Amino acid sequence: MSAKPTTARTTSKRISIFNHKGGVGKTTLTFNIAASLAELGNRVLLVDADPQCNLSAYLIEATVLDDLLDSSDSAKKGATLWSAVKPIVDGDGGIKEIEPIEIRDDLFLVPGDIRLSDFENKLADYWTECFKRETHGFKGTTAISKLVNSICQNHKIDFVFFDTGPNIGALNRAILLDCDYFIVPVAYDLFSVRALRTLGRSLYDWIRDWRTILGLNVKDVPTLPGTPRFLGYIPQNYSVYRGGVASHQAKYVGLLDKGISSDVVGVLKELDVIPARKIHKLGDVKDFGQLVPASQREGNPLSETAAGTPTQRLEAANSFKLIAQKIIQRTS
Predict the structure, then answer these.
(1) Three-class SS of residue 290?
(2) 13-331 carries CATH number 3.40.50.300
(3) Secondary-structure breakdown of the chain: helix, strand, coil percentages, each rounded to the nearest 5
(4) Is residue 285 within 8 Å of 319, Cβ to Cβ?
(5) Would strands 181-186 and 13-17 be described as parallel, antiparallel, or unpaired?
(6) FRET pair for 137, CA 20 to 30 Å: which of 5, 163, 281, 330?
(7) Residue among 49, 25, 53 nearest 177 (CA)
(8) Rounded Cα gap, residues 291 and 56, in angstroms
(9) Which pLDDT value is given to residue 1?
């Protein structure tokens, strides 16, 4: 492979909780894991890369978010992810440096923007330009990566989490190829089982195509690693009955594990992005009922909401802490 990065990459671990299937609670999961990692003493950056801006709406007061979106086109005031990449889309130069919002101690957010859908349209063109060995294509494809790298340097970030939309489009492709790791959230249902095949095959094609691009003898251009390693999968929002998964969901426990093994691990194994481990489940998160909508209303982790009982909040805290500890272990 001839292409080499033109900027040193920080040691921050970049992670996407990715599933193109909707309704698996990616945004809630992303925030609560990130908050738990921050509680454990890590500096964490959240990047809202979903044009729907769900993570931003979760964590930023509505009027503040409206102001951010209204001014995102401004060269001076723009402070969203779209503001950062807009100069490249307009052909005016490199990325615009923006400051993330500190949501809580050691937890930062790059706000999303509905205009990211425009950037996604351009990313499809950039991808084609990369195959043609055109420098502009590489600059566009790596724009978000460059921004994240700069923020990580300036704020000494340990972990980066991308919140992505439920699709297999060009924006998610650029993000996954920039990530060091990915986590697959699932539900105990038939749709999650079926979605794994498309997920595994899409990742395989993205990684393989990027390796083809890197082998085109292109020099002195910004690149992406293109090696997102599988960190594990997380079943969530399941019902508990007598200490186990409820009967209407229990039949999918084995099917999901089998699907992960065949449609994700099996498909990606030859690309050397599957670590050698027997257990791929990273953890699980049961249905915490009223804690979830309360968390989304308040912008707090499940464990810090005003809803539920102290026992429920403690159980939620422990669930995410165990996942965060395992992430630290598996990325060390």
Answers:
(1) coil
(2) yes
(3) 50, 15, 35
(4) yes
(5) parallel
(6) 163
(7) 49
(8) 19
(9) 40
| Dist. CA 214–CA 57, nearest whole Å | 37
Characterize the bridge pairing of strands 107-110 and 101-104: antiparallel
- Domain borders along the chain are 13-331
- pLDDT score at 243: 62
Q: Distances in Å between the alpha carbon of 111 and those of 2, 58, 61, 199, 254?
A: 34, 11, 12, 26, 38
CB 23 within 8 A of CB 138: no
pLDDT at 233: 95
d(CA 164, CA 123): 15
263, 196 Cβ separation under 8 angstroms: yes
Neighbours of 233 (CB within 10 A): 25
Cβ atoms within 10 A of the Cβ of 63, count? Answer: 8
Tokens of 164: 């992505």
What does the pLDDT look like over 146-180, one tens digit per residue?
999 999 999 999 999 999 998 999 999 999 999 99
* Count of Cβ atoms closer than 10 Å to residue 149 Cβ: 22
Task: Tell which residue, 330, 324, 323, has the closest CA to residue 275.
Answer: 330
Token pair belonging to 300: 């707090």
The mean pLDDT value of the chain amounts to: 92
* Beta pairing partners, 29: none
Sole residue written with tokens 């105990």: 188
The residue count of the chain comes to 332
Number of helices (H), then strands (E), belonging to the chain: the values are: 13, 10
